[in-house]
# Entry
Amino acid sequence: MKAAIIGGGVIGGGWAARFLLNGWDVAVFDPDPAAPRKINAVLDNARLSLPALSDVPLPAMGQLSYATTLTEAVTGADYIQESVSERLDLKHRVYAEIQHAAPDTPLGSSTSGYKPSQLQEGAINPAAIFVAHPFNPVYLLPLVEVVPSPASDMTLIETVKDTLRSLGMFPLHVRKEIDAHIADRFLEAVWREALWLVKDGIATTEEIDEAIRMGFGLRWGQMGLFETYRIAGGEAGMKHFLEQFGPCLTWPWTRLMDVPDFNEDLVDLIAGQSDAQSGHHSIRDLERIRDGNLVGFLRVLKDRDWGAGQVLNAHDALRRDTVKAPDADGPLVNLQVLPSWIDYNGHMTESRYLFAGSETSDALLRLIGADMDYVAGGHSYYTAETHILHLGEAKLGDHLTGSVQVLEADEKRLHVFITIAKDGTPVATLEQMLLHVDMAAGKTCPAAPDILARLLPIRDAHASLPRPASAGRHVGQRKT
Amino acid sequence: MKAAIIGGGVIGGGWAARFLLNGWDVAVFDPDPAAPRKINAVLDNARLSLPALSDVPLPAMGQLSYATTLTEAVTGADYIQESVSERLDLKHRVYAEIQHAAPDTPLGSSTSGYKPSQLQEGAINPAAIFVAHPFNPVYLLPLVEVVPSPASDMTLIETVKDTLRSLGMFPLHVRKEIDAHIADRFLEAVWREALWLVKDGIATTEEIDEAIRMGFGLRWGQMGLFETYRIAGGEAGMKHFLEQFGPCLTWPWTRLMDVPDFNEDLVDLIAGQSDAQSGHHSIRDLERIRDGNLVGFLRVLKDRDWGAGQVLNAHDALRRDTVKAPDADGPLVNLQVLPSWIDYNGHMTESRYLFAGSETSDALLRLIGADMDYVAGGHSYYTAETHILHLGEAKLGDHLTGSVQVLEADEKRLHVFITIAKDGTPVATLEQMLLHVDMAAGKTCPAAPDILARLLPIRDAHASLPRPASAGRHVGQRKT
# Structure
């Protein structure tokens, strides 16, 4: 699949990274000679962070190329995303040239303000043009507002939404076109109010930022406005909350009716305060800090299958079937070392070696049918003991594989030897004894016949493998 | 220390929980007979989540009592927090009664709208009255807006800020009083715009919530408006961003100038959409989901020492000195089992046993001086191998201790036996061999003399302890 990215700034670069890391080829068109440098900077960030959200290996990265003309970029493309400056005349000129070469290809615009019907004016094929408005950093945040107009081809729009989901995004279908769509209307409201607070000397940029990120910002990363207020209403419910809050609306709190005079004094005031607040970090540092924080938040939500985390889990599920099912003779798991797995020595923290081992033995258990449904039925394998031998060091971003050798197995016992490898070289081995238990009784018991019917042939096949030298080793034993 | 909590709703309950869990005694006054039930519900949530943010043991919980009169509640209190309904006449009556009994005690109001000078009108001691506006859930979100008026006692205000910091909060000193302080002005702006979008049929409550939590909400949990836009400006900086964004301000995007008619139709529309969106979860479920998400976000920021995480680390540091320094003969660490540590069996996931063991061996290393400064100097102890024996199960919220017995030690080797216990009963033991390394050379080397001078006496003292039965055990060994 090929995507054409028209306009190679921060937003275009983020789109390019999303497509490339999901296996699409990408052709960028941007006459700015600095475009490749800018795109590569975004791509560097994306490669550090986006794969950390995925528990199913991403496909091999697509090919990135730079087209010298618009026509070259869009020819043969399956999807076109336009992220040029917010000038309607410019966008119209670009669309005319694009649709001269590729009239039927879905053509999404990253515009934050224009309505799709404005974008479609005078177009060769208005039906193929729509808004696909993403949020920075495009390679991490799932939201993309998809806005059709009455002239849009709704079959094409549904296909586009599927394409965006295949990139791990959350297409929010905006049913009625409106200036600035939905999210940016909130951002505009907050922005106006913030300008007044700074201009009137009520608060500095730093104080405003703290007022956001120490309080409601944390709430809004996981529930929106209404779900949050629903809770605040308590047992009495949403109606009670509304009836309490309603009257405040007529209070003259905000100065939203007026637009502050956006002159040089105000620009200098804000830029100076922002320098004082954040100037000790470079923009590159701030990007990396932001991305690390976002990856952390998104992993939390993924573990809890909530909000943006549900989008990530759905993205994994979508790709799980396309990845070759593991068998007990090859690597059972693939993991990438995440920022939160690093210790003060700069290496993967030791408990994550056991985590990698657990993921591997869990994969073996799923393979023999001792999966979540089996656990829900009241039986499981519990780890009784583990011996870990450290042989090398894993660092941030390393790709690790986990494979397993069944040393012994009977009705109740499963004795395995796990190798965690980086580029084929073991960094740790784990020897584990697992016991099959009746969870309610809290006692060992024989595994179900269909589990054993899958497990014992693996044991028999592995019986011919050489026994690992460190199997049966105790801590402090001299090497033999 | 004693806090008086006047008004026992969700906000008053959150304040009570903050104080109680930080070791203060709390007297609540609320004539509502349902107040104890409501406060206990908040306290139950807080006890599940707030301790999970702390890596230094919280003090023993204070005593909670219900006063039958305002005077009884505030007598002997070191701090008074008022969270009654948003009616100025009611607040004035309450303050008069409070200050008749306790005129000089700091008296904070949870008001989201009134200015401190309005609260102080006609008071016995206006100087002691100020705004301390928190955010729900009060026991988790750090932000509290502290707003004095020109009549305030600024020494008292500074003391109050220290008190709030000792509760793990982030007092944002609002320098100029203004209706709705700072954060709620943004919430009002967003709320108004959201009402229009719902009323005009542009978006449902669910679509609005997704537009927030899939995009800018995630950003705002870790950086505010200005720092986020600073990054968007890229290398060209904040001024460039402002100059680009500025002109959009005059576009007529939002409908903020008008207040929507807040009638029964709009209430029903919103309440109905909210039911469709979230009605399948009880309010209690939503609270627990929200708190689990927030604990996850806050732990991410804490690990990264950023934003709200810096507040949590500072709170730990503040208390670390008050907690008895561990010695090698008692438990070296105290841990509480967090939601993210639970596996699909409902138990603490196995890699967290090694995590608890690592925390314990790290504590021993700090005790002998092999701390972060030592690592920064290029030397460290690396774990070479570990044997883990599982003896019991740890579940969500369990308090675990980790203690260590030094089995052997010499210049390069440190052989330890760690016991992870719940209520004094071992749930796992870990035998570990640690090697002292020159990190640059990647080789073992003798530890520094001052490290050995602290380590070897511990080894000698532990030599008289009985050797644990499972020391030297290998995986699958029969019990002897």
Residues 206 and 480 of chain B are 62 Å apart (CA to CA). The longest strand of chain B covers residues 425-438. Residues 283-303 of chain B form the longest helix (21 residues).
